[in-house]
Amino acid sequence: MRICIFEDEGYENLYPLSLTRPVFELKCGQVTLKERILRNFPGVYVSYFLRDYLTPVFSQDKKEVSVNEMEALKNENILFINGRWLLSKGKLNLTGEEEVGICGEETLYLRATTKTIKDCFSLNFREFIDSLKQKLKKKEVKARLVNYPWDLINNNCWALEEDFEFRVKKDVQGKLPSSATIYGEKDRVFIARSATIQPLVLLDSTKGSIYIDEEAIVFAHSHIKGPSYIGKKSQILGANIGEGISIGPTSRVGGEVEETIIHGFTNKAHRGFFGHSYLGEWINIGALCTNSDLKNDYSTVQVYIKGEFKDSEATKVGSFMGDHTKLGIGCLLNTGTIIGVGSNIVTAGKVLPKFIPSFTWYLNGKFYKGYGLKQIIETAKVVMSRRKVAMSSEEVKVLEEAFKITKKEREKLIEKSKR
Amino acid sequence: MSVEERVKKIVMQQLKAREDEVTREARFVQDLGAESIDSIELMAAFEADFDIEIPPEEGERVQTVGEAVEYIEKKLKKL
């Protein structure tokens, strides 16, 4: 038996977060969507299907797994799982009847035997899945599926609590100074042995669990509410951390954040508020940058998805930012703002537009191409080297491909700015 | 208006420079105080005014007012 985690066409709705990674490498709770699926099926062989240009980076350090290999699917019973599914514990069994699990219009999983796979086989993965869907009997399943970026945020508190339960170690192993306080249940707080908690830290577990991972440092005067996750080697710089926070690894957070997911190596070190937001990797947020996550009229928030504004049907939506983007000091982000990968923002004091394409310089109210992709990559390499990480040639190629994909939307706004 | 006159007018507007400062030899960064942001805005202003495309790697090589005049004149001849 094998499982196969796949990307479907839903990845585009998750731009810019999914421009540089497969959808199942997005985070929710303490872990990625992929890890959430895998921990339900320990020891099982795994295949992945994802966009071709992402495979070299994804395959790094994964020699034992199969990536985009149709041949690997031929001779086994297989459980195919949609990579956008926030799979909860006990929700899906490895073995069982042949069927396709659906949630509304979306395919959640397909369970098929070798015989059915042979009958439906095609070298084109999409066609193969479509053929299986036609053949297998359907089963309606209620599920948490990530359709849009805000779904990751809206499920984060739930995911954090489930992840805390999954962990074996759940207590205070590191040192807690006498002036630091756990307010709430002590068994809802985990502090790793190598984590550092400075004096005058308040850990509030009254509404949820708090997990502080290896080598994290929580500086004095930080206030952390659960549920929250402070990732490995991350630093909380006297910050006010509201509930629903996932940070790191190796990220630095100051100011005020709530209901926000921050990938690794991202810095939001200074004062300023971010709420209901998702920040990719290697982002730098300048001092006093703040996002709105609630409109003054309390109406639902519109977000720019696939070239048009989509009603999120939610009143609390923050901002979504691709990898390697930089915000200069004092940027003000509107409710439901999308900023692409590798963009560079310098504000003139006004609220930013709700959509800034990837690899764009937004300066004083206008869009520019800036110094181009080459310079963005050079800057990214400098930023990464400061954390002793080298950008691989495969990662450069992903950025080059993302640059091509976003060319049209970027050039449209740059041209408009010239008029 | 000649290309040189138009270039100088744009430079004065974008970099808030006086007419006597904007000589052909004047360097955008060292003499006229252009920050990296100003340089991007300046190149975009040339693009808009002359209706040309300046690739970032070519724009980076244009360091003085005179180089901008020569670069734009060459570009316009190719059109």
Count of helical stretches of chain A? 9
Strand content of chain B: under 5%
Largest interface: A-B, 16 and 12 residues
Number of strands of chain B: 0
Q: Helicity range of the residues of chain B?
A: 55-70%
Strand content of chain A: 25-35%
Shape of chain B: globular
Helical/strand content category of chain A: alpha/beta
- The overall average pLDDT of chain A, rounded, is 96
Strands of chain A, total number? 38
Q: Rounded to an integer, what's the Rg of chain A over CA atoms?
A: 22 Å
Q: What is the C-alpha radius of gyration of chain B, as a whole number of Å? A: 11 Å
Account of the protein in words:
Chain A starts with a strand and ends with a helix. Chain A contains nine helices and 38 strands. In chain A, the strands form eight sheets. A nine-stranded parallel sheet of chain A has the order 11-14-17-20-23-26-31-34-36. A seven-stranded mixed sheet of chain A has the order 5-4-1-6-8-7-9. Chain A has a six-stranded parallel sheet with strand order 10-13-16-19-22-25, with no helix packed on it. Chain A is of the alpha/beta class and 419 residues long. Chain B is mostly helical and 79 residues long. Helices cover 61% and strands 0% of the residues of chain B. Chain B has helices at residues 3-15, 36-50, 56-61, 65-78. In chain B, helix 1 packs antiparallel against helix 2 (36-50) and helix 1 (3-15) crosses helix 4 (65-78). The longest helix of chain B has 15 residues, at 36-50. The mean pLDDT of chain B is 94. Classes of the chains: A alpha/beta (419), B mainly alpha (79). Chain A binds chain B through residues 346, 361, 363-364, 366, 368-372, 374-375, 414, 417-419, and chain B through 36-37, 40-41, 44, 47-48, 55-57, 59-60.
Short note summarizing the structure:
The complex is a heterodimer of chains A (419) and B (79). Chain A is of the alpha/beta class and 419 residues long. Chain A has nine helices and 38 strands.
Protein topology:
The complex is a heterodimer of chains A (419) and B (79).
Chain A: E1 2-6, E2 27-28, E3 31-32, H1 33-38, E4 45-49, H2 55-59, E5 66-67, E6 78-82, E7 99-103, E8 106-112, H3 114-120, H4 125-135, E9 138-140, H5 149-154, H6 156-166, E10 181-183, E11 189-191, E12 196-197, E13 202-204, E14 210-212, E15 217-218, E16 223-225, E17 228-230, E18 235-236, E19 240-241, E20 245-247, E21 252-253, E22 256-258, E23 260-262, E24 267-268, E25 273-275, E26 278-279, E27 284-285, E28 290-291, E29 302-305, E30 308-311, E31 319-321, E32 326-327, E33 332-333, E34 337-339, E35 344-346, E36 355-356, E37 361-363, E38 366-368, H7 372-386, H8 393-405, H9 407-418
Parallel strand pairs in A: 1-4, 1-6, 4-5, 7-9, 10-13, 11-14, 12-15, 13-16, 14-17, 15-18, 16-19, 17-20, 18-21, 19-22, 20-23, 21-24, 22-25, 23-26, 26-31, 27-32, 28-33, 31-34, 32-35, 34-36, 35-37
Antiparallel strand pairs in A: 2-3, 6-8, 7-8, 29-30, 37-38
Chain B: H1 3-15, H2 36-50, H3 56-61, H4 65-78
Helix pairs in contact in B: 1-2, 1-4
